[in-house]
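Q: What would this chain look like folded?
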Amino acid sequence: MKATIALIMLLLSVAAHGQMLKCTGKDGKIEYATQCPPGTRQEAIGIKSTPSSAPSGSSAAPQKSLAEQDAEFRKRLVEKEEAQAKGAKKTAEDDARRRACEQARAYLKNLQAGNRVAKIDPKTGERIYLEDAGYATEIAAAQRSIDANCK
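A: My prediction, written as structure tokens:
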């Protein structure tokens, strides 16, 4: 009696490890199952319904523990945040450089047009207008600023 029950259980477990089949009906409808219904054409697709053990001769990677997976996830998360921060910093630097370039070009254009240019004296806080002799040095300084910031 016990032997017949063991034999039935063995046969049921073998049937449970069957192969997946592609079943194509007369109307062209495709289904995937372990047994195709009557009136359909069956085709083996090479997918087992249950995972089999690793083939002999190939070295499967050992399963990582939950703690190792969590540590790897946190590491990837930190790396992603660092990359985003680095990208944001580069974007901010590019924006600052672009603004400095635009300001230097506008200042150079004003100098070349001969417009009056005023500066604030840092000692007294008074407004000082640029004299005609100082335009050449200011134009050279503005051009250096353009060369440094406008690339």
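The first strand starts at residue 19 and ends at 24.
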